[in-house]
Every structure is written in C-alpha cells, then in structure tokens.
Amino acid sequence: MSNPPLRIGVAGLGTVGIGVIRVLSEQSSMISARCNREVKVVAISAQDPNKKRGLDLSNYIWYSDPLSMATDENIDVVVEVIGGSSGIAKDLVESALNNKKHVITANKALIASAGLDLARSAEHVGKTIGFEAAVAGGVPIVKAIREGLSGSNIQQLFGILNGTCNYILSEMRETGRDFDEVLGEAQDLGYAEADPTFDIDGVDSAHKLAILTSIAFGCEINFDSIQIEGIRHISPLDIQFASDLGYRIKLLGMARKTEAGIQQRVHPCMVPVSAPIAHVEGVYNAVVTEGSFVGRTMYEGRGAGEGPTASAVVADIIDIALSRNTNLFLVPTVKLERMQVAPVSSYIGSYYARFMVTDKTGVFATIANALNDNGVSMESVLQRGRSKNEAVPVVLTTHETDEASLIRALEAIERSKVVFEPPRFVKIESF
Amino acid sequence: MSNPPLRIGVAGLGTVGIGVIRVLSEQSSMISARCNREVKVVAISAQDPNKKRGLDLSNYIWYSDPLSMATDENIDVVVEVIGGSSGIAKDLVESALNNKKHVITANKALIASAGLDLARSAEHVGKTIGFEAAVAGGVPIVKAIREGLSGSNIQQLFGILNGTCNYILSEMRETGRDFDEVLGEAQDLGYAEADPTFDIDGVDSAHKLAILTSIAFGCEINFDSIQIEGIRHISPLDIQFASDLGYRIKLLGMARKTEAGIQQRVHPCMVPVSAPIAHVEGVYNAVVTEGSFVGRTMYEGRGAGEGPTASAVVADIIDIALSRNTNLFLVPTVKLERMQVAPVSSYIGSYYARFMVTDKTGVFATIANALNDNGVSMESVLQRGRSKNEAVPVVLTTHETDEASLIRALEAIERSKVVFEPPRFVKIESF
C-alpha cells in the first residue's frame, strides 16, 4: 500500500476510548481496505496506566498528560474522548489543532459551548474536527444532515436524543412504575449515570440539539437560548392519560425555523401513536428532519454505548483517511448566520394539562373560566375516579394556543386554590 | 468567491432532470455557500426542445444528442437522468468518464448491471460516479452505508425499496381491495407507471438491493443471483390473515452474510407489527442495517418523486464540488470480493402457507402428513368460515424450516388434489 499510514492518538480510555481501539484493531484489514491506507493507533493517554481495561495496551506510547500527546509529531489525528465542556478536553482539542492535527471528539458539551471558536481554529489550520459520535451514537446523523441532505433547506428537525430518558419513559409506560424507581433500575443496569442530572434534566439533549440546529440551518451555535425541561416531573398518571388519549410521552429536542426566528426546545412532548417516532423505544435515538424538496426523513439507532459511539468515531477517522472534508457547521464560519432567536411567546400549539382537584361543584367552572379569560379553548376533558375527600385528576387538551396564554391560565387556576398541587402541562406535537 | 464554478450538464429532462434544475436554481445562493463555489447548470439535453417543461430553459446550451454534451469542455459534471440499463444512458456515462467528467446518475438498472465496469473506468480517470439518487430517493442511504457506517462490518440489511409496491400493499391492507384495483388507482395517481412490471415484479427493488449489497459488503455487484418475487399474487385474504396473526406483508429486499455465502432476496415477507419497518407505509422507503459495533440502524423517507430524487442528485453535486471522494463500492475495485452466492437450500425460516380446501374430513390430515413427511413442523393453524361446497381457506405457520423442504411439502399437497388452487406461501421474517 503506497499511502502512508494514518496515525491515531486516543486521549481518554473510558468506554468510548477502549471501544475505538477495539474497533480499529479487530477490523484492521477491513478498515485499511476502505481507507486505501493503514490506520493505526500509535499513542494513548489516560491518568492511571495501571487500571485494568480489558485490552493489551502495551504496544502504544503512553502519555499521562494528553497535552504532551497533542505535540507528538508522529500523530496525525487526536481522538478526544475525555469529556467535559472545559478543562483538559478543551485544552487538548485546541492544542491538537494548533499542532496541525485533525481532531475527533464525542464531546457534545464541548461542541455545544465552544464549537464556533473551534471551527474557526480548524479552518485556520486547514484541519478537520469530526464529531459524528457526539449526537445519536452510531447513527450517522451529522453526516446525513451536513452532506446527505445538503441539497435541501431544512425547516425543522426533532428527535429523541437521550437514550437514558427514552429508556426511563419506555419503562414507566410499560410497567406503570414511577420515575424514581425506574431511574434507580436504569442506574443499576448502566443505562443511567450515578449523577444522572445532565440526562434527566434535558441538558444532554440540549447539547445535541444545539449541534443539530447549527449544522442543519447553517447558523452559529446557540446553546444558551434553548428552552430546556427534563423528565423528573413526568408521572405514571400522565403517561397513562397520554395512552388513553392516543399519545406517547417522549423527551424531544426540536428546532424550527419560524417567521419570528429559530425555536430550539427540549421538553417532554405528547406525540400521536401513529407517528413513527412514538415507536422508538428504550435506549434508541431517532431524528426526523423536514426540508425543501426531500420532505421528511428519519434516522434511528442506538444512541450510546461503547460499540455505537466507537463506530461513529471510526467513521470520522475513515473520512479523514480519505481526505473527505466538510465545513464543521455546514458552511464556512464566516458565512454562518447569527441566530435570530424566536421568543417563547411565538410558541403555538395544543397542550395537555392535568389538575388534581376535589370532586366538588364549581371546581370545573373555575378551571373553565380561567382558560376562557386567557383565550385558551378546550378540545377535550377527561376525569378519572371520583372521591369527595381525596384529590382526583382532571385532564384536558386545548385547541391551538400560545404557551404564554396557557401558562397565565394555569397560574390563575393555581391561585384560585381549587387544585391540590400546581397544574402539570405537556405540549402536544402532531407530527 | 475564489474557487471556479462547478459546471453541470443535465441529460434527460423528465421529472428528475427538471427537479435538479429547479433545486439548483431556487436555492443557488444556499448551495454556493455550502460548496464554497458557485454551482451552475450550463447545458441540458433531451430529444424534444419544444416540449413544455414548466421551466425557462433558454439560458442553457441545448444538446439534442447527449453524447455531444459529454465532450463539452465547459462541463465538469454530467447528470444522467435518462434511464435504462443500456443504450444511450450507458453510452453517455462511459463517454463522460472518458472525457474526464464526473458523473451523477439516478439509474439503478445501469449501476446494477454495469456498475463494476463503470467503477473501474471512473477509477482509471480519477473521477466520481455519484448514485445516491438510485436508491431510496432522498434518503441518503448510500452515504450512510459507504461512509457513516464504514467503521462497521455490516452483516445484513433489509428494506422497503419500492414505493409503488409499498403504496399498493398499504392501500390493500387499509381498504381490503384487491391488487388489480389498487394498482389501477396507483397508476391514476402517478404512483405507478403505465407499464408497472419493473416495480410490481420486484425487479426495481432487486436493482437497488444489488447496489446496497455491494456497497455494504464490499463485494462485486451481482444482480443475476438475486431471488426475485413480486407482489402480483398477494391477495386481500393473505393480508387479512397476516393482520390476524400479528404481521404485515411488505415487499422487502434482503441481503445477508451467511456461512454458505451471501443471500440476496426480494420477495413479500410477513413482518411482525412490533417491528419498526412494519409501520413504513405508502410511498415511503426504509432501510435497516445490522453491523458489528453499531448494531441496528434504520433510515426512512420518500423513495421517489421529483423533489426527493433531485435532492439526492444535488447532494452528490455538492460532494463533488467539495472534492469529497468515495470508492464507488466501498473499497477500490481491485479489493472487491467475488460474491460467493448462498444456495437457496440454505434459506431457513418460518413460513405462512394458505390452502383453499373443501371442508371435508381427511383434508387436514393430508396437509399435515405432507408437511410431516418433508420434515416441516407446524406452529399454528387457522381456519376461516365453513362451507361444504365452496373452497375455504386454511392457513398455517411453520416452525423454522428450510425453504426447499416446504416447497416439496406444498407440491405434494397440490398433487393430492385436496386443494382448489396451488398453495400460497409467504416467508415470515422476525426482525
């Protein structure tokens, strides 16, 4: 083979780092054939050289300081799988670019927060930052959007971007158990981290959404403007009512171009059971795009785990080996548009709301009046169970309304004291 | 902009050709930004210059002979959307390559039959043949498999590859009408061609499957070895029984690596309603892949039509504009493996079979004995309706068996004269 080998340094030897080494070594001849050149890991970096990692790592040069690896002249590509939006991961990526190396990362937090600066640095040195592994694990969604759909003007996208949340919601629906119990089980199974905050509060989904928005719309990444709500407050009761009404509750990330600007939202939604995305269950992720000419397309697969994430990193390595270059965010950074953020008042849709009330005369009139006073019109009402002493749920769905009006109505209902707890509401998305 | 424009010639001004011109002209500034250079159609070719095509074509150089366009020195990329596996389309592609132009085609028949020779020619001159539009319309499945999943060793793939057939089967299920009636309606709606043979007999699906097999497995394309069966014989009765048993009937293309070699099949299958592909309805296409490390991924979208197909052609144009090159069939042609074709006797699975019988003592014993004699064991039996005089259907599903044994059993049953018509059978795929 006449082309020189592509030499890889892997920084971070957790699940993904070990996975990358495994994918490359177990399939080395296949990958070399696809790249028309040898691809080999030459160096690795992690804090503890003595930790058992289930692989023989003795053939690789060991760096206890990843920043030293970034200056190694025998490395062409640095794979950053340390994680974290700042600190050593960011320093490493910057240093690797400054030393004229390609970078591949699975770090969505880093791209979501510093992606624009990193893209400028990469352009400056003429190197690539690959980040396919940062969104939807092994599903090549970054490639699909930036390249496969590049002939289309994407108007909206939405997706299930966090496998932990989707697993929890799927389990809650199938077993009727509550959030805390299923979360504990997910932690035991390794589907949720010991500190699950980033996942269950929607932050991880928002990092991924910020990336998808930018590569789909060609605008500067804007994580801070995302409206984020997690799944902690979703109750088995809401999941049951959703089923009764013909919906499933999914945590979605959604980005939409509107006349008022770009909406970016992460929150639980009710989606009709007839929608394909309603059937994406467990740890699977899925992304749906809608664009000019091509219409609607959907992509689905495992959103995390050693194998899928490592597979995405290796796909980026193969792109680099073949000199297939892509603008980090769809267009060169100088052409990225500043994002015009749509105000929350522009959010329009139907909603589900649940009230815990006593079964007394006048309660429903109070609710109906508050909705009416704020211009919110009801589509359907459902009451389950009757009790003079205990709280019983009343749920309703609204016709199309703006979210601000709904929130004003719910606040008025809460102030009126007919409810035992603050009303819950979930947006209905009729994809 | 400092890069020279990329100059396109479009041969064939049917739906797709006009679509390509429309996508490029309506989105010219967006596409130029994504390509870092201008992309412009400079020449077009079709037989009749006077035909109304709904677009102003007066700014383009007109070639009534596409082969003359292939020699135009002011063209960088020839888009072949004439169609047909031989004749002018093939001559044009060969001539364009010989004249050192990139080629983009939506022509699955051409790639399926002559792809290997064309790939060699393209390598010889160092040019690209793009054919994203040849499979699954606007869904970037060629890119997903060749690039996005290139870190994975794909073991099997299957998909709904023909929108016409999927529309017909969806309509038959929803309305209970028979094949001929729904086909006629599909023709009126433009979802089926005046001569629908290639679609409904599975040939179009097989062309696409041959391409997917080759790019997924890195083997020489082998259309002739595909076992092909279409949907003409699917009756509303079978669709109804499938529903009763928890299945849907879909025309699938399937490729699988087995110890006996590679299986490539196109035929109607029963898929469980719990499988995501069961919910791909109407003119939509979907492809599912299963490979090392990444596991199962799925891709879905509109499989045909002006917009989706043109969008895929334009994605290929953008790849060329950015010099993103890919081996036509995953690896360089010298590294493609000769396909070892698995014999039909290696096909193992469960089957559905339907018999039209008179409701007489002994009939069922005859069927059961024939199955038993051939080593086929039954899983379930279902009878609908009773009549002493008319044929009534008996259906059964089998445990896992090889297809050759099943066929021998069905032939024995047919010879025994207890049935009014040849038994029908459909393979059950438990994805």
What count of helical segments of chain A does DSSP give?
A: 14
Distance between the termini of chain A: 50 Å
Overall CATH architecture of the largest domain in chain A? 2-Layer Sandwich
CATH homologous superfamily of the largest domain in chain A, by name?
Answer: Dihydrodipicolinate Reductase, domain 2
Notes on the protein architecture:
The structure is a homodimer of 431-residue chains. By secondary structure, chain A is α/β, with parallel strands linked by helices. Chain A has three domains: 6-134, NAD(P)-binding Rossmann-like Domain (Rossmann fold); 141-303 and 328-344, Dihydrodipicolinate Reductase, domain 2; 347-428, ACT domain (Alpha-Beta Plaits, 2-Layer Sandwich). Helix content of chain A is 35%, strand content 24%. The first copy, chain A, has 14 helices and 17 strands. The first copy, chain A, has helices at residues 15-26, 28-35, 66-69, 88-98, 108-125, 141-148, 163-175, 179-189, 197-200, 203-217, 236-244, 306-321, 363-373, 403-415, and strands spanning 6-11, 39-45, 61-63, 77-80, 102-105, 129-130, 154-160, 227-228, 247-258, 261-272, 284-291, 295-302, 348-357, 378-383, 392-398, 401-402, 424-428. In chain A, the strands form two sheets. In chain A, strands 7, 8, 9, 10, 11, 12, 13, 14, 15, 16 and 17 form an eleven-stranded mixed beta sheet that branches. In chain A, strands 3-2-1-4-5-6 form a six-stranded parallel beta sheet, with helices on both faces. In chain A, helix 4 (88-98) runs parallel beside helix 5 (108-125) and helix 13 (363-373) packs antiparallel against helix 14. The radius of gyration of chain A is 24 Å and the shape is elongated. Chain A starts with 5 loop residues before the first strand and ends with a strand. Chains A and B meet through helix 1, helix 2, helix 6, strand 12 and helix 12 of A and helix 1, helix 2, helix 6, strand 12 and helix 12 of B. Strand 12 of chain A pairs antiparallel with strand 12 (295-302) of chain B, so a sheet runs across the interface.
